[in-house]
Amino acid sequence: MIRVLIVEDMRLTRDGLVALLEQQPDITVVAEFGRNPGLVPLVAAVRPDVVVINADVMTGQTFPVVADLQASVRPLSVLILTDPRKPVVFPAWRRAGAPSFLVKDVSSAVLAETVRRVAGGERVIDPQTAVAALMSADCPLTARELEIAGLAADGASVGEIADKLFLAPGTVRNHLSKIIAKTGARNRIDAIRMARDAGWL
User: Would you identify the CATH topology of the domain 143-198?
Assistant: First the structure.
């Protein structure tokens, strides 16, 4: 039996994903989760085979969260559901266990089969996601800058970002200044808007 944990903040969508996967005779949903804080301890407690994450839940933070999950629970496969209308930025992934990617508008049969493939150790990258990644190849922001921009977009202050990422406040401010400079924005709010419009967040 393949044990799955679903991360999705929209209750109706989450219930739908649970129902779809529970219909499969070889898949069981062992837990579901709405937001990022507390996810790592939950995964460590229930030890799923596959974590299915809606990328929109963790704007700009998906890859750091995946790294935290895989550092705490091994082996663990991660399937990230992406919006086919948004370009995707893939940071460098230099170790085994890189996440898989699937667009969110696939059929339930494709989702279930992808979960099986990922649980079996295969890395899956949906063709639409791969094309989206090529479209976003000109993103000037680093993975860390995207992470900070995502937290700022969620309303986190410099101090809150620093605490969450274990950085000095001055380092966070420097990153924010670089984000503004790289995007050619007038200020932090404008930079976040531009990053969202470009599909980087």
Answer: Arc Repressor Mutant, subunit A (1.10.10)
